[in-house]
Amino acid sequence: MSHETLSPELEAVVARAAAAAPAFAATSPEDRARAIVAVADALETAKSDLVTIGIRETGLTEARLSSEVTRTAVQLRLFADTLVDGGYLDARIDPADPDFALGVRPDIRRTHLPLGPVINFSASNFPFAFSVMGGDSAAILAAGCPLIVKAHSGHPELSDATAEVAATALAAAGMPDGVFHLIHGREAGVAVLKDPRIKAGAFTGSITVGRLLADIAANRPAPIPFYGELGSVNPVFITAGAIAERADVIASGYLTSVSGSAGQLCTKPGFAFIPAGSALPEAIRAAADELPEHRLLDPRIARSFAERRDAILASPGVRPVIDGGIRFDEHGHGWATPTIVAVSLDDFRHSKEALVEEAFGPLSILVETPADTDHAALMPEFTEGNLTGTLHLSADEATGDTPNAAELHALVDALAQQVGRVLFNGWSTGVAVTPAQQHGGPWPATTNDSSTSVGTAAITRFLRPVAYQNAPTAFLPAPLRDDNPLSVPQSIAPAGESKSWGHRWH
């Protein structure tokens, strides 16, 4: 198969990745885990130098970037343990059964194998945790897939420095040549995504670019999976009881969540639905003293935020709770302070087209709802898919035994239909790196709402199931052997049980 569309440099990258795929897939879980942990250790050793570059290129604070390196290392170590445990392989064994309910059953065994080379398009707003060695990259390498990272143009020097650390660690750990590469440029990324040797894509970024790349992946002669994390407005619902109980605490948490990292987080609460006439706007004003300005990631993002902010402020019925603002320095960088606005539900409906789009920056909208509002119905009316949805309740409401319990249950059900993570009495920013995490949601939050980019389930995106029928032991993958040399969890359907299926329900 020819690959004339690639430049010589890109051809060398893809060819090496493809050549490395069989050997990398054959590495033992322990060896792959040691290599991934070696990368984590190397990143933490290089943290000071990497953070210094990151501050200069992104404008994010030293504290934020330092904690992000730690998070990145934790993600890598989590996946190291995950791949050695082997539960993600979902090994299933159905021994041969001559007395099977439908006739003789052959011996069938099913597990998951690495897809092959994967391209990961890194994000601008998480220059470590969703970039060169971020969660997607960790999952790809843990799965045993060669990784090609397309660096983000917002932090090219940091991408190169991080890649050098990772490549050195992987090589020192004995991983096959070609398992990791870094490339630059959107055109290069698109060209690699189109190449038939690439078996999947991952992306974190805007809806526009994510949709473009997803369409390319789907329209290839042989379509491939594409896992994009795109846009989310993360609606919050706050009850009158919660505000009466702790308005000051809610106001402080809301402001922190909206303003953290200049609001450039995919989990920032874009809207908060609150009772009309509540004390929360005043509590927010009281909590907003001396909020510092923060540089946005790059001039393009800053200009986009300024335009979005102006459009929101100009919409009928919108009134500032905190004015905030943005100024541009001599280099074109934007420095913003948080803007919080309020609008009635009627005006929100009237200006829906102007208001519901995500504002990527430190801005959020309070939507004031009448007492008789069906809040569950607001989800499909105003939002599509989201990464998160949040509900703030009073202590009594949290027991599920208050007059509005049925309404709250309906709201929780509505949230669960349209988000990947439902939060109670907390804030959506700050995504815990832990096995049960779900960081995904229906379109346009992601391109595939059955997947996650955080948590141990993320590894399954880069595997495919294969069943082996009547295979001699010598030809079975280790997870499917009766002696189970890797000690992975195995789900076994014993011979003879099929004739009792369903009997318990008679």
Automatic annotation (TrEMBL):
This is Aldehyde dehydrogenase (NADP(+)). Residues 9-433 form the Aldehyde dehydrogenase domain. Coiled coil: none annotated. Pfam families: Aldedh. Keywords: Oxidoreductase. The keyword Oxidoreductase applies. Residues 480-506 are annotated as: Disordered. GO terms for molecular function: oxidoreductase activity, acting on the aldehyde or oxo group of donors, NAD or NADP as acceptor. PANTHER family: ALDEHYDE DEHYDROGENASE-RELATED, SUCCINATE-SEMIALDEHYDE DEHYDROGENASE, MITOCHONDRIAL.
